[in-house]
Amino acid sequence: MDKYKLDTLCVQAGYSPKTGQSRIPPIVQSTTFVYEKTQDMADLFDLKSDGYFYTRLANPTVAAFENKVAALEGGVCGIGCASGMSATSLAVFTVAGAGDNILSSQAVYGGTYNLFAVTLPKLGIECRFFDPDAPAEEIEKLIDKNTKMIFTETVANPSIIVLDFEKIAKIASRHKVLFAVDNTLATPALCRPAQWGANIVIHSSTKYLDGHAAALGGMIVDIANFCFKGNDRYSSFNVPDESYHGLVYADLPVSFGTKCRAQMIRDFGAIMSPQNAFLSYIGCDTLALRMERHSSNAKKVAEFLSKHPKIEWINHASLKDNKYNKLAEKYLPDGQGGMLSFGIKGSVEKCAKFMEALKLITQETHVADVRSCVLHPASTTHRQLSEEDLKKAGVPHNLIRLSVGIENPDDIIADLANALEKV
Q1: Largest Cα–Cα distance of the chain, in whole Å?
Q2: Where are the alpha helices (DSSP H) in 285-398?
Q3: What letter does residue 183 receive in the DSSP assignment?
């Protein structure tokens, strides 16, 4: 399907039915699978053949969704996970262990920040945070022989910083470090990180990929463009894995993806459920259409808010005076997505008053589905951060995160205008 354009892949990739089979992937709601020959089972456990033997490792419905997202991202292997957070965790654990470190942009989703800053250090993995806008030489100073990954987001949640891909890709390439990108808020409909040097792409499929707030899930896509063989940073890829009869992952064409599934999914068990995979697969059918509407709606909303006297500031890269507009034109030329953030003039209490006055737009701990919603990150998703960390993450106390849906833009703007009158 490589010859097809992305909007065609959204509809067609991932599953090809044969004569008499269902047109869409069936929900294979089974934990296990039957085989008549003992050797067939043995070959599956030895990774010598493809197939399904236990849903904790692989499932036909999940595989259809994995294949679709891998095709959309231009990757070779997708791994469906229970959530976006489990996808991020498993990606890190695939390459890093006690004594290692990773680098991460400090402007990441609050849950990711807490995983990196609090939980990983308890397991012996250090995270060194950097300002995504910092010069390359400043970021490079954080890298040492134990650095296993550089982690970033295409569009940062909720600061809406647009990543300078080429800057980070050059750093990763110079030091032969794995470059992982969370592409949740852009999706492959607007940006393909693999085209800009990323090695691993991560999604919270709960967001735009599903698109309807119906299915929890995460996805890891291995682009298979990183050479582990002979790389001293990744000894675990270059020595035999005795838990898989001496398999050397660096010798395989899909090194990261195989190790992630064979070790991490096997041992942590954070696999996506067939039901959620089915819903997310169906959601992806309309991804290209939805992202076009999300982007156009958000641009109109951003223009409205940028001129409103009660708005102190606004972040959306579609605005010409936005700090990241040039990067967005380069990396997100087909739209900048439906996420934006803005600050209400005055006290934090005014933020609450504004959000409570909204009628169409609802308050939710969620983003990136067809319905518009708002959240106050400093008191919710980022409330565990210190004042200093909030500042580093680009989350002031008057920041309101707005996920612009696909409703009529006039109705969205009218709701915002009415609520601002109450402030």
Answers
A1: 73
A2: 287-306, 325-331, 348-357, 387-392
A3: -
Tell me the Ramachandran region of residue 103: left when phi exceeds 0, alpha when psi lies from -120 to 50, beta otherwise.
Answer: beta
- Global pTM reads 0.95
Q: 243 is written with which tokens?
A: 């838990």
In sequence order, what E strands does 214-333 have?
Answer: 218-222, 311-315
CA separation for the pair 4, 331 (Å, rounded): 21
Is residue 7 a contact partner of residue 288, using CB atoms and an 8 Å limit? yes
Does residue 162 sit in helix, strand or coil? strand
Closest CA to 244 of 57, 35, 36: 57
At 55-110, the pLDDT tens digits run 999 999 999 999 999 999 999 999 999 999 999 999 999 999 999 999 999 999 98
> Residue 398's pLDDT is what?
86
pLDDT digits (tens, 9 = 90+) for 234-261: 999 999 999 888 899 999 999 999 999 9
- Assess contact for 228 and 250: CB atoms under 8 A: yes
CA pair distance 304, 298, nearest whole angstrom = 10
Q: CA of 3: how far to CAs of 9, 65, 182, in Å? A: 9, 19, 25
- Round to whole Å and give the CA distance between 149 and 20: 45
Rounded to whole angstroms, the Cα distance separating 181 from 190 reads 14
End-to-end CA distance of the chain: give it in Å, rounded.
Answer: 52
Model pLDDT for residues 288-313, shown as the tens digit of each residue: 999 999 999 999 999 999 999 999 99
